[in-house]
Amino acid sequence: MGQYCQGLPHVTQLEAVTSYMYDTIASKVLSQRKTDQVGVIKVRFEKWEEGAKDFIYDRNAENDCKYIQQVCPIKQFSLKNLRELKDQIKPSLENDSGDLGAAIKLGIEVIYDHCKRLKYKKKIILLTNASGELSEESTTQIRKDFKSENIEFVTIVAGCLNSGMATNERISHNIQRLKFLCDTVHGIYAEAPEAALSLEMPKIKPVKPVRGCTIPLCFGDVNESPNEFSISVDTYPCTRKAAVPSATAYSNIITSQNSQMGQNTGIDMPDCSYYGAEKTAEFKEANLEQLSYLREYYIKRDDDSKQVIAEDDRVSAYRYGQELVPISKMEDELFKFPTAASLLMIGFIPIESIKRWFLMGPTDFVVPTIGTRTNKAPNKEYNSIVMSSLSRAMIEMDLAMIGRFVKKSGNEPEMVLLMPKVEPDIEGLVMCRVPFYEDVRYFEFPPLTTNIGVISKKPQADVRYLPNEEIISAMDEFIDSMDLDHPELIPFGAPQNSTCDLNNSDANADDGECSVDVVDSDFIKRELLFNPLLHRINSIIKACAIQGSTDDSTIPKDVPILSEFTHPHKILVVNSEAKLNKLKHLLDIKEVSEDAKAGKRLRGNGISAYDTRGQEGLDAEAILNRF
Amino acid sequence: MGPTEVNPKIENDLLFGNFDDSGERVMNESDYKDHRDALLFAIDVSRSMTQLSDKLGGVSACELALKSIFDCISSRIIENSYNLTGIILYGVKTCNQCRVLMPLSIPDSSAIKNLRHFLQDAELYHEAFQYNKTKSPALIADLLFLANQQFNSFASKIPSRRLVLITDNDSPCTEDEPKGLLYAKTRAKDLYHLGVKVEPLFLLHEFNNESFDSSRFYDDLIYDTMLETELADFDGLDQLEIKAKSKTQPLQACNLSSEILSRRTIRRPLATNTIVLNAQINIGVQIYSLYRPQVASRATWIYAQGEVAKTVDHDTRIVVKTTGKDVLPEDVRRTYRFGEDFVKFTPKQLSKFRYFGEPTIRILGFKPASWLKFDDNVRPNYFIFPTDKQFLGSTRGFSALYQSLMRKDKIAIAYVITQKNSTPFYAALVPSPETDLSNPANPDTPAGLFLIPIPFADDRRRVPCIPADQQTVAPDSLVGIMRNIISKLKMSKGYEPYRYNNPALQLHYRALQAVALDDEYSDLYIEDKTMPKYNSIENRVGTLIGDFDHAVKDHLHISSDSTEAKNGLENEQSSGQKRLADDGTPITKEVKKRKNTRPEFSMKEVWRLYQSHIIHTYTNDQLQKFISRLNLKKSSLKGTVKELLVDTLVTYLDTLSSLDDLETAFGESGGEVNISEAAS
């Protein structure tokens, strides 16, 4: 493994595969989930670490099992563990013995001991250059174990398989066996470059569906009319802003207590410094003190001194013109609008009438309450069959529903639109909030297509401001030439199946992949639009933690997909060039000179800009006096 | 009394600027509210304006205008409380024919009380609205001069200044008085130099033959100032706008009220940006946000226990969590966590991470409009409109893009950075059609492009998968009945925000006004326009809904005749819902309790409870609903909300002789409420 890869003179085979491991582990550390655990076994290493305790195989054993060691047990990783791990994984230059099959067996045992009968998602990733021992018999045994324990298996092979190395008989045999093993246990076989490529695909943190609320969906007046029905429905988030890691505040000053202890020199830590794993523990105490914010409330006495008051003695005040009107908590309660948790049907509107811009935020799924397998909801059949009829009827009629939604009794009501959604996995509705009258800002804008303001008796060159038919058809042509469904556009990366799976199966302990149920074959795919800030920061944190440095040189560049859709695609740019030039010529858009802008700025400062008129040499007075 | 720990996020904002979790600069509501506006109304008091009109509900145009202005001020005072408002009457019987009814100022409760008193007191009112039979030819000039004075003395530093002229007279100066026009033009020019926008509201009503020819006088008055703009101002948009306004179609007087209300907010962009076509064509635009949840926002905290109420201030101390030692803000650094540990970066690095380039709306290409789905939504959207301030000709380019997208039924996909240092996102640019002319008073959608952020792959959640064996697919027969039901409940105009007031916010506004004006809480009740129109639903699909319910139960082999089964079903259902609720309280008990104490809500039951004098067992909510359904006038009784509601209802029921009367009354009032116009 210490050999350099072909074509990559600076990367050893070991580095080529372990980068995948470190990244995988770093993602688990970042997730901070207690159940997201990992352990590492090394095989065919140089020599036993002094003080290493966790062997299962005897170091004095005669056979190839001698060089198998569990580097660390299965646990939730920290930065310290990661650094320790890095110190232990080194290429062996001399040792050439160690059984891959036995190592996998040990892995299965370790997983079995750790997980017992608990519902973990289990996975073994084998990183190898396929030059170790791997016997036919051991793979047969392993195959059985994988199946009975329901363990996923991934093999990543480093090495120059199409070069002279592959002529090595043992390696080619091993590769065949590994491929066969992967096939039979539905595992994944990948080579290092493929794995490296998969790291370039941002990973989406899968979020388990969490029920928002369970409320009745009512048709008709449930309180009064005999002709009504209601079913119980659950809401689940459909779209939510994914959280971007936020920076934590800490104090830059070392507390005197710590400097007395002599752990530090008492000088302010330079911001850029990084403290290695061995220092992490004291680092926390010495420098990175968590902060909290304390608030003290006071009023000013007549003599300007402060009188501290309790938080609860404050009363909220609202502005009423010049005055402040205090409203006590009691009054607030009295003025609270009473509501009961519910989703009330108000009416149905044609889907084509929906003004897309009314949708005000995140969307939710609305599905019938069926409860869980163990705790079945009463009337689950009734709920499902009514919802099924409703959503199917809405789809057939091309209608969406207007509803009044109260998430929890006492909450303010919201107006919502509900769209039917019938797919293999779901028969329900998708809900989104729309504005109340008060939520609309009724701003006035002049029309964009007609010159309402043109006064016939003074024909001004108003056409200057609006395009003529020639311009619009030039725009039409430009739009056609920039069509994103252009056949020559090849979707990004066109990821092969194996790399794709490599990514997704890497998900957290109890979650599967995040499915995006939109089928489109076009160039801009929804599932390829990643939050650039989120993935940039995550990859920076991971890279810097693995490398143990925050130098600018360590900070990785954005992975290619993040910048794939920041500019129009080359093919489209070339394709549209002629049309664009024509449009540009016709539109004749000119940047406003700095002088003119300066004139504008004057107005902002409260000085009338209109006094600067006539800068183009026109006699304003003369024109004014024409009347 | 000790200091309180606060949410560090809030403090972070204070220390590190307005960035939210996702690193976007938070666009504050105060960005709008802090922008102050001075609005001066001028009402033309003339013979025709003061004549009582049946079309306006038996009041004069003047009175209607003043009432609408009162409503406008009442809402401005709460929603945009730093804004100035004033009212001038012109053409009245005082010496110079102009009267300042309310000087331009930030109104306070006494000003509102005075104005209300003025509206209610017939004598005061009629005295003020006596028109002057001999009109001075210089009247408009005098008015504009007076307005100038008002703006100069009370609103010299307010950035937005508007004069709204409400008149039905298209020729205030007769032809043989050319001086009138000249004077007026001079005064109008003065106003323009002061930065005051004149926004005329021309009325059409039965007493001026329903015609209004702005060319007789006003075109000249307002066009003058326009020409000037053309010379001084490079903003083509502004010119268009003024022209559009000067030719504002004369209004039917009955639309006056909503037109005045629409003046209460001023337009203000969030940011200026540029649409870029393949790095070659730049189109300057301004970004607005038009739809945002409006919430009652507290202005400040007050300590009311002393002799005088005082505003509460606070100090924030940053301390080390473990030792309690103070830390100065300049010694606070930020870092990212890696599990339990930290990875330290310099402030410079941190800000570099967040930097993705200068603001831009870069077009990546175009797609059919149908590409954007309903669930492609997670962030609030923006409205963009051209400005020629940076790039002359932007309006032209924008309009071409807009018109082309509109007629090709396409949308643009763009890479967007709204403001400096904000996180980029992908967005669809969706064209919105020109305002619906059939409903000019409620232009909820201006024509332009909406910038709708497309959710990131990271923002999409999994479908809550229902195991296949748990899924129930409805048979065609049931879908058929449902189809019948929903087709009868169709509102073909779509969703119209103006139909739905936020009842919680309205209640808050009313309460605030009541407290400010020392009113009784008695007229606090507000009509909840968000409730389904039950009567209409009952009339249209009542039987069908019943049929459907039965058919489903038949399908599931539940006896539909047995009411017991139905009740059982309901009980089960509600308890099922409750059990699933996460509050964790012993819920079944609560359900039972409710069943015992709260009577069923039907007309029969109301009558029964009324006769046995226990109508107060209903909840306030139920009573309110019932009262609003019957369109009852609120009792003026002083007391709690409950007492008030009960009194209102009982007073009404006293007038009835039997249950039948109640049912009839109920039917009548219900008949007026229509769920939609879609019956046809």
Q: What portion of residues of chain B belong to β-strands?
A: 15-25%
CATH C-level class of the largest domain in chain B is Alpha Beta
Discrete helix count of chain B: 22
Helix/strand structural class of chain A: alpha+beta
- The H-level CATH homologous superfamily of the domain at 4-199 in chain A, spelled out, is von Willebrand factor, type A domain
How many DSSP H or I helices of chain A? Answer: 17
Subcellular location (chain A): Chromosome, Telomere; Nucleus
InterPro entries (chain A): DNA_bd_Ku70/Ku80 (IPR006164), Ku80 (IPR024193), SPOC-like_C_dom_sf (IPR016194), vWFA_dom_sf (IPR036465)
Main location (chain A): nucleus
Pfam families (chain A): Ku
Written description of the protein model:
Chain A: This is ATP-dependent DNA helicase II subunit 2. Chain A: One of its GO terms (cellular component) is Ku70:Ku80 complex. The complex is a heterodimer of chains A (627) and B (680). The radius of gyration of chain A is 34 Å and the shape is extended. A seven-stranded mixed barrel of chain A has the order 8-9-16-19-18-17-15. In chain A, strands 5-6-7 form a three-stranded parallel beta sheet, with helices on both faces. A two-stranded antiparallel sheet of chain A has the order 1-2. The termini of chain A are far apart. Chain A is α+β, with helices and mostly antiparallel strands. In chain A, a hairpin with a 2-residue loop joins strand 13 and strand 14. In chain A, helix 1 runs parallel beside helix 6 and helix 4 packs parallel to helix 5. By secondary structure, chain B is of the alpha+beta class. Chain B has three domains: 229 residues, Rossmann fold; 129 residues, Ku70, Chain: A, Domain 2 (Beta Barrel); 197 residues, Ku70, Chain: A, domain 4 (Orthogonal Bundle), CATH 1.10.1600.10. Helices cover 39% and strands 19% of the residues of chain B. In chain B, helix 4 packs antiparallel against helix 5 and helix 9 packs antiparallel against helix 10. Chain B is globular and about 85 Å long. The C terminus of chain B is likely disordered. Strand 10 of chain A pairs antiparallel with strand 16 of chain B.
